[in-house]
Amino acid sequence: MEQLMYARLQKLVFHFEELWFSFLTHSPYCSNPLIPPSFLIFFHCSSNLLQLGKMSFIFNVLEFASHQGEQRRGICTGWLAEQVAPLLQSSMRNQTPFRPKIFISSRPVNTFHLPEDPSVPLLMVGPGTGIAPFMGFLQHREKLQEDYKEWTLGETWLFFGCRSEAKDYLFQDELRHFVEKGTLTQLKVCFSRDSPAPAQPAAPKYVQDHLRLCSKDVARILLEEKGYLYVCGDAKNMAKDVNDTLVDIIIAERGGDKLGALKILAALRDEKRYLQDIWA
Q1: DSSP code for 180
Q2: 250 vs 261: CA distance, rounded Å
Q3: I need a labelling partner for 70 at 20 to 30 A (CA). Which of 46, 108, 154, 166 fits?
Q4: CA–CA separation, 121 vs 187, rounded Å?
Q5: Residue pair 161/245 in contact by the 8 Å Cβ criterion
Q6: Angle separating helix axes 172-181 and 132-147, nearest 10 degrees
Q7: What does each C-alpha distance from 76 to 94, 114, 268 come to in angstroms?
Q8: Is the model's pLDDT at 256 over the cut of 50?
Q9: In degrees rounded to 5, what are phi and psi of residue 276?
Q10: Report field, pTM of the whole predicted structure over 0.85
Q11: What gap in Å lies between CA 137 and CA 120, rounded to an integer?
């Protein structure tokens, strides 16, 4: 009974939010919607070492059908997309770019950053917009690579996934550049909605599938070479599936049982070598 009442309340709140947003966007008296900052999450994807004094962000525009079947956009991401649309259009026309004023507040993350020792190997798991912080990591590593040619930098592995290669492959050219320069040692990409070509074997669909295929290297980097593992993105499904896959990898490569594997992952968290920036 309580679950049914809660579900109805959620539906009522959702309908109210739709009406509220519709009023704000159509009223001549509201030039800017009043958006609580906690509604919008976007990720910094640039390196201070490379772009001093500048910040780059990435966000997804949420699109959904209303309860009346109308196509809607998320309150925050839809509004933000409207603000940056003139900027994109003026850039395409080689005009002086329009620069909207967008106020942001920072959310300090004290642990989700590169290790101080650049020789430490990295495993980065970031499907969708979860790739954002890792672009900053790779920019930083590339700058170190250029400025300190005598240094030996650790391996960098990126596991990235999206729905469609043609529509959702973020930073494709930049990632190819990092691979060509040796900044990114291994790039593992998967597309969950794309079908394999005829007569081709089924390709990995999710980032955890690629982790499983690279289980020996994952275990080597984490358990032998004291590397770092970063996971950024969806907490509800992806992060849980990645964690379950790590348990399976540890059991397969090091033996033992599930309890022992969970203890190893807990130790990695305590050592700040298994780091997550995830959201539900």
Answers
A1: H
A2: 6
A3: 166
A4: 14
A5: no
A6: 30
A7: 28, 30, 36
A8: yes
A9: -125, 140
A10: no
A11: 13
